[in-house]
Design brief:
mainly beta, 6-stranded mixed beta sheet
């Protein structure tokens, strides 16, 4: 099982990033998939989940309306579109399925 995140970087407040999680080694289409983040010195925090099959999405209130989770089952890939980024969004972002990926760093700073 492999989950590899990409797309992180440094952006100014109000900017956007699109994270990608490429997966392999398991039946992606049958797994609920999630994004979580971990800020420096803090524990991991769940951000969003997209269900298998129906694709029902749920969000942490702090990101609802700014972040959009999606999936492409044909490509075994999970996405997180992040808009109107704030400094408090700075964290290591990782995807979760049957296991957790290594993460991609997002830094929001002017």
């Amino acid at each position: 099982v492999h989950l590899v995140e990409s797309g992180g970087g440094m952006v100014q407040p109000g900017g956007s990033l699109n994270l990608t999680c490429a997966t392999s080694g398991f039946n992606f289409s049958r797994h609920d998939m999630s994004w979580a983040r971990q800020a420096p010195g803090k524990g991991p925090v769940w951000i969003s989940t997209i269900s298998a099959g129906s694709g029902i999405t749920t969000y942490l209130p702090a990101v609802a309306g700014r972040f959009t989770i999606s999936r492409d089952n044909a490509k075994n890939t999970l996405y997180l579109q992040m808009n109107n980024l704030k400094p408090e969004d700075t964290a290591l972002y990782f995807c979760e399925g049957p296991k957790r990926g290594q993460g991609t760093q997002v830094t929001v700073s002017s």
